[in-house]
Amino acid sequence: MVERIQDVAHLGAVELLTPKPEGTLWFFHDLFGMEIVHRDGGTHYLRGYGDHAAATLKITPAKAAGIGCVAWRATSPEALERRVAAIEAEGLGLGWSNGDFGRGRSYRFRDPDGHAMEIYYEEVRYAPPPELRSTLKNLPQKFTGRGVNVRRMDHLALFCKSVPENRRFAQETLGMRLSEQVIFNQGRDEIGAWLSPSPVHHQVAYVADAAGVHGRLHHVSLWVDNRGDVMRAADILAENGVFIEAGPSKHNNSQGFYLYSYEPGGNRVEVYSGSYLIFAPDWQTVVWNEQERGTGVYWGATLPASFASYGTPVVEAQKSNATVIDPM
Amino acid sequence: MVERIQDVAHLGAVELLTPKPEGTLWFFHDLFGMEIVHRDGGTHYLRGYGDHAAATLKITPAKAAGIGCVAWRATSPEALERRVAAIEAEGLGLGWSNGDFGRGRSYRFRDPDGHAMEIYYEEVRYAPPPELRSTLKNLPQKFTGRGVNVRRMDHLALFCKSVPENRRFAQETLGMRLSEQVIFNQGRDEIGAWLSPSPVHHQVAYVADAAGVHGRLHHVSLWVDNRGDVMRAADILAENGVFIEAGPSKHNNSQGFYLYSYEPGGNRVEVYSGSYLIFAPDWQTVVWNEQERGTGVYWGATLPASFASYGTPVVEAQKSNATVIDPM
Amino acid sequence: MVERIQDVAHLGAVELLTPKPEGTLWFFHDLFGMEIVHRDGGTHYLRGYGDHAAATLKITPAKAAGIGCVAWRATSPEALERRVAAIEAEGLGLGWSNGDFGRGRSYRFRDPDGHAMEIYYEEVRYAPPPELRSTLKNLPQKFTGRGVNVRRMDHLALFCKSVPENRRFAQETLGMRLSEQVIFNQGRDEIGAWLSPSPVHHQVAYVADAAGVHGRLHHVSLWVDNRGDVMRAADILAENGVFIEAGPSKHNNSQGFYLYSYEPGGNRVEVYSGSYLIFAPDWQTVVWNEQERGTGVYWGATLPASFASYGTPVVEAQKSNATVIDPM
Amino acid sequence: MVERIQDVAHLGAVELLTPKPEGTLWFFHDLFGMEIVHRDGGTHYLRGYGDHAAATLKITPAKAAGIGCVAWRATSPEALERRVAAIEAEGLGLGWSNGDFGRGRSYRFRDPDGHAMEIYYEEVRYAPPPELRSTLKNLPQKFTGRGVNVRRMDHLALFCKSVPENRRFAQETLGMRLSEQVIFNQGRDEIGAWLSPSPVHHQVAYVADAAGVHGRLHHVSLWVDNRGDVMRAADILAENGVFIEAGPSKHNNSQGFYLYSYEPGGNRVEVYSGSYLIFAPDWQTVVWNEQERGTGVYWGATLPASFASYGTPVVEAQKSNATVIDPM
């Protein structure tokens, strides 16, 4: 067995596409308390107060909601080269770019399902303006106390046609650990896979898209430090007329304490806390069958039917034979 | 024994005097998340999102920090008359006024130490403007999620020269329950008394003023629903350069979870949660001696020396032979 | 208008009937962390660590689950006499008894729906054995840290055939405040009423029993100080195979943070925190119609259908023409 | 620059020496809710409910309190070999052993200060007995709800004569990241260093021992998921007469929410939550000088003088010229 070396450090940034950029900005800035650090035309770059990178969320106006580019940071320049070689060997590479805001050169690729991704190493360290400097030296930015005040980007979940194919790509080509899996029909149908490059439980999940299409987003997830903050987020969303799809409740899978809502552009967004860390280098993937998985909830609400079907871009039944969805 | 009837319903409103009204308003509005509901010249009236009355905090510009008028709401028109008669019998009455913002006619008086107070029954129910309407029908105002976002006025603590004299007034003339007491020197020196008209542990505390003066404020206290909110308040105060005098920690006396800071005008303000309710009609006052009281802390920080001596208005050593302090 | 005087101080104790007394004891002692303070044959008396009375929960073996006697404490001997006179005037009195464990003479009666109740004033103050003495002088008993470790009895909800009739009895004969109401069909069908003798939001709720029978219990509710403790209770119940019917989630009505489960005997038991206090003497009852009430949930799980129909004793369809249910 | 590869996965287990083994066991089993999984003579092996390994805490009777062997798990067999080679190159190796309970062959060594350590890869996965099986498939053991109920071993802090020497060993020989540092006297005196092999903020801290001796323990730290659990621990410790040295409060350095107590054997034990994760591969160590460091507290209690001086084994002034302390 070849020794596994961690080449991906962490999820670097997520780009969300939105047909209602003003509403989406209001959601992440006013309600979620993120800061806008950069603008480029109609595109905005935001950060949570605890994010190390200058920006971790890119909001891009588009015809339809959905996921843009998912950026992964490599652990070193050498690790970056190794992963690019592996991606190219899979035939999924798209080539080098000069890097998005706050990042150096990046290598663009697609996962097997067609989601746009890139990997990079060079990153500009965030330097806050005076009014956003924290009194805590180890905090990259002031805790402003505005709204939900999310700490950092945590993970995302991607719908895909074939969970095994994409899960193997994340494991073997990107080098992630498979933390948990949901497999139905006596081991035949892999419904979901939760993967991470680090002790964090998962930074990407692949979930089977019943619509049979490619390239959709299930949700992006922002971290808060306490379950009380998730419940406070529920109060804030409820007061502001934002649809809460599920939670606050506790998943069995991942043990995460979740709250799912849709931002005005239509993308599902989670406020997240809890979960658990995985340190064991010989971790045995926890596999759930139909009965063990149940509704995916340890306690709290059963997840509604929309949780299994709704994603962005929204697909109509007749369009579901499309291959890769391009909401741009 | 004469049957005790509850004639005071609750603490109605507190007036704070401040030499720095802009800073004080920033503190209560921007950091504490209270709403400004009324202005009268330089005076402002504020409320917490869960306060039933239109306004519970009045901020009045003055030469020095301190406490203005403390308003108590009676349980009924009859109760109001009974209490006015009792106050007049004590010779502490000042007469009727037309009532402050949001209240009907009120009877003014002073407690034995000289703090200005009034009692009233008629109150204008708060009607929020459209942007402050809550989606929760039983919440008088939207939870905005701004800063500490205190829920309501909870209680206040008053420095006084003679705790027994003022405590007896609150018990016998106002009809409050004596929840707890601190008595040192083998029962001779009453250092503090915690009183309430309702199951809430205390709505007023009388504390011995070592400066030997009259009429000072120890602190006013705003309620948040959870200890996590008190700790969140600590983060917000720390990030905004506001002095934290003590906490978040847990008192032994009252079991309250506290955080004490000074607003820019100099008044000590507490963010408070926890504590316990007292329902027993035959409650036996819990009395603490020196050893039992210790530092007043069950766990957390020992209270600093300033906690026993600092009050508003601030007194200089040479001025401490003053009788009643008038910061106006 | 006659002045309303508070004659009932608080809910004193609740008696639960159980066909599985061992399981019920395991539930309240081992899981909920209550102490057993007295035994009388197969009957057990328990308390939460913060209960002022010696015992607040009586567990009585019976053929079927259900509610036994609900005891209310009066605010004074005079108040007791006034309430007894009022109850007798309604023709609902049953007469004086010598009092249950820890209480003096008590007056027995039935509410209009037939639930057994009593009212008393004299109460024996709890004196803990050495191993249960708290290091906190104002805590009646040591916080043991066993399981859920509920603090105190909070309230109960009673099914009844006619909500208006029972609600009026609680208001007019017992003297409680009507905090909230659910009324459907344009004001014609009163579905639920939440009442309390004190600033606590409710200590008894009357809920319409769709089974059309009398005398059933909807749930009894135990208090914990924090929402985190409610979620910890969910973990403990889930780990011990106890059915969780709903929550942890937040009600719209009452704003309470709830967790409903069934103890092994079949009675629905709630772990409860949050909610809000009502101090205003001129409180306007908050009335919810169908649309406002929705599922009764502000955020979290929708309440399952069983929440509206399940009560104890369990009734079979054909038995539902019974008048008063006697599970003894 | 040579690419840094993570060869140490995590802190595997900590051995505590105690002159009062019964008291120490009571502390960790009854109060902290850990399970005893193995006994070997008077030595006991314990685990938190969330620990992946069978045992993470070894309690060994000894003449004096102190730290026994600190075990580190390697990320792979190859990583183990690389680290052993590096340790041997430093001349600090002691040789291979057959491994302690639950582990395969282990390589013993000492850090420059003389603390006993070992590194291993093979580990027996924990298999709970039926009564300790969790209903959560991804939880290695039932959450029992007993006492503090710590989730897992988190980190330890070691006193040492030379922080730079030991810190460099952890960085260069074991391959850890230096998260934070405290350096006084304009960069001359390194007082403390916080290191970790993973995104967890620190799993070992080296702190300057003012006593000028070697081999002492500052504290071991157990993790709970929420700050509410830390405060609950404070209640439990206070109720059981266990000395609380500091907290619950929030450190500035590490942002951890801490509670420090001494177990009956005398070792300082922390209950810990919060803190933050470090994902950036190019993390710049946060360095604190005297003014920035202050008392080491962001809010809450100032740490008492004992926090800087007390360690185990306890040293008397005259003994402080000892080189390596052997409490066995």
Helical residues, percent of chain A: 10-25%
The rough form of chain A would be described as: globular
Query: Structural class per helix/strand content of chain A?
Result: alpha+beta
Instruction: Give the DSSP E fraction of chain A (strand runs of 2 or more residues).
Output: 35-45%
* Series of secondary-structure elements of chain A, N-terminal to C-terminal: EHEEEEHEEEEHEEEEHEEEEHEH
Main sheet of chain A?
10 strands, mixed
Strand order of the largest sheet of chain A: 17-10-11-12-9-13-16-15-14-18
What is this structure's SSE topology?
The structure is a homotetramer of 328-residue chains.
Chain A: E1 8-18, H1 21-31, E2 35-40, E3 43-47, E4 57-61, E5 66-74, H2 77-89, E6 93-97, E7 106-110, E8 116-120, E9 152-160, H3 163-173, E10 177-184, E11 189-196, E12 204-208, E13 217-223, H4 227-239, E14 244-251, E15 256-262, E16 268-274, E17 286-288, H5 290-293, E18 297-299, H6 306-309
Parallel strand pairs in A: 1-4, 5-8, 9-12, 10-17, 13-16
Antiparallel strand pairs in A: 1-5, 2-3, 3-4, 6-7, 7-8, 9-13, 10-11, 11-12, 14-15, 14-18, 15-16
